[in-house]
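Try this one yourself first.
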């Protein structure tokens, strides 16, 4: 019986480590908590500690590990909801200045966004394209490879 308790405790540790490395949505961690409580209870009873000691120790261990798991899960979810802060995807919605004119016919130009010069094209594919002159304020609509698709910034967007 003691061997089963120790095996469950080892399984709990394995499940906690797996939870840290595999996106399982907390299911591996929950299984680890159950294995920890069951393993602690079985190991303590098999060692002769009695129910008076085994139950509070097993439940206390389970509550503490579940609280830690919940804290880590909430921090993980909060971090996943943050906007992208690196890479080209983070440029969508940012404003910049035209440095080389974008012609109405679709000829690419250059824009300066977030401290870097980018190749740019007008984003309005279905409307009549408006030429963007040097100094115009633009907003990045999407990123296609190393080319930004931009549109002219509205008045309220120019002030940011």
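Now uncover the answer:
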């Amino acid at each position: 019986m003691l061997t089963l308790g120790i095996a469950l405790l080892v399984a709990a540790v394995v499940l906690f480590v797996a939870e840290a490395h595999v996106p399982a949505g907390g299911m591996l961690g929950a299984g680890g908590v159950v294995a920890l409580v069951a393993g602690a209870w079985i190991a303590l009873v098999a060692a002769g500690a009695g129910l008076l000691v085994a139950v509070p120790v097993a439940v206390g261990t389970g509550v503490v590990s579940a609280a830690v798991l919940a804290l880590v899960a909430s921090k993980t979810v909060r971090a996943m909801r943050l906007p992208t802060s690196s890479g080209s995807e983070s440029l969508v919605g940012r404003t910049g200045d035209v440095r080389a004119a974008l012609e109405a016919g679709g000829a690419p130009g250059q824009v300066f966004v977030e401290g870097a010069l980018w190749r740019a094209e007008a984003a309005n594919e279905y409307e009549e394209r408006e030429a963007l002159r040097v100094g115009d304020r633009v907003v990045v609509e999407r990123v296609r490879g190393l080319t930004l698709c931009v549109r002219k910034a509205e008045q309220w967007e120019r002030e940011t």
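Discussion: The chain has two domains: 2-81, 88-158. The longest strand covers residues 137-144.
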